[in-house]
Automatic annotation (TrEMBL):
This is Nudix hydrolase domain-containing protein. The keyword Hydrolase applies. It comes from the Bacteria. It comes from Candidatus Nomurabacteria bacterium GW2011_GWA2_43_15. It holds the Pfam family NUDIX. Residues 18-153 form the Nudix hydrolase domain. InterPro entries: NUDIX_hydrolase-like_dom_sf, NUDIX_hydrolase_CS, NUDIX_hydrolase_dom. Keywords: Hydrolase. GO terms for molecular function: hydrolase activity.
């Protein structure tokens, strides 16, 4: 049986898609009741922290490594795999069409303390704190090419789980 058969699929299939499996994290600070996202320099589009995971790297470890490198956040209290999806999207920073088996983790912070972020040359964004409603509104306003459908799916599932765990007490997204 095909391992991808029961995985939801998002986005628009594009020509010449490169496969690059990886993951992302929905990062929540229970003290401020806000979610951490990257805000792109220039267009202001939000993004989840994450990226491609090396072939021999554990998915969870790889995603947490990416969170630390891209955001500087490192003090994690709780981490749980939330969902897996097949995502078709255009990677604007590398100007390539991608297909990815993407795994999303909910990360609850112990504290929002930071270490210095280590962005790669193509990564042009910075950490901001926002509500789920503001994040979804940002993605929906910039989603004509369906690049953010999987992010919306991941965020909504993460908010539901954060609420179930008693961490998110204010969001009205769900």
């Amino acid at each position: 049986m095909n391992e991808l058969a029961n995985i939801p699929e998002f986005g628009i299939k594009r020509e010449n898609e490169e496969q690059r499996d990886g993951g992302c994290a929905v990062v929540f600070d229970p003290k401020t009741q806000k979610y951490a996202v990257g805000k792109n320099v220039g267009d202001g589009i939000f993004r989840l922290f994450g990226g491609g995971v090396d072939k021999d790297e554990d998915m969870k470890e790889g995603v947490l490594r990416e969170v630390v490198e891209e955001s500087g956040l490192y003090d994690f209290l709780y981490v749980e795999e939330i969902a897996v999806a097949l995502a078709h999207y255009h990677n604007n920073s590398k100007n390539v069409n991608r297909i990815a088996k993407a795994t999303c983790f909910l990360v609850i912070l112990k504290s929002p303390e930071l270490v210095k972020a280590k962005l790669e040359e193509h990564e042009k964004f910075y950490l901001i704190w926002s509500t789920p409603e503001e994040i979804v509104a940002n993605w929906e306003a910039n989603n004509k090419d369906k690049n953010y459908d999987h992010y919306i799916y991941f965020l909504k599932k993460s908010v539901v789980r954060a609420k179930e765990l008693g961490y998110d007490t204010t969001s009205n997204l769900i």
